[in-house]
Amino acid sequence: MLFNRMSGIVTLSLVALSFTNCTKNVKEDSQMMQGMKMRSEKSLNLTKTYTANLQALNHSGVSGTASLMLEGNMLTVKIDAMGLEANKLHPQHIHGFMENNRNSTCPDMSADTNGDGLVDLPEGLPSYGAVLLELTPFPTADANGEIHYTKTFTIDGSVLPLQNRAIVLHGLTVMNQYWPTLPVACAQIK
């Protein structure tokens, strides 16, 4: 009889210990899952920095740099460019392809399909895609033909991934007429 009671106590103790270990494992698993969730959320909130080196289009002589900082859905764009037409408004955009997220590129002169010696906006679209984000307010170049632009935008997923996009600056005088839509510089975002 004593043996049966001892055996029952030992069995009960083992069950209790097993249950305690099971509860401990559930808690550890729960803590591990919570940690993984926090790391995942933290990685979504990391600041990502991108750069772009602006190269001249249409023999404009424009050059410069752009830096982009993405924090969550906040995108800060900083553009420093020179060689632009002084005292003129210069539209600027982030371009890209929505339908398949393919990489935007900057066109070369082979994109001049009408043979007028210029790559106009419609001729450049097959290379860099449609406007995804207007970088407004559009800056006016100073007396030296420079712009120094910084602005923060709230964006949605249509602008992402930034490394598949391009920045295009516009505005050039051709035959004594200013064409605000004519591309003057382009850069792939990296």
Automatic annotation (TrEMBL):
Protein source organism: Flavisolibacter ginsengisoli DSM 18119
This protein's name: CHRD domain-containing protein
GO function term, MF aspect, one: metal ion binding
InterPro entries xrefs: SOD-like_Cu/Zn_dom_sf (IPR036423)
Gene Ontology annotations of biological process type: superoxide metabolic process
Similarity section: Belongs to the Cu-Zn superoxide dismutase family.
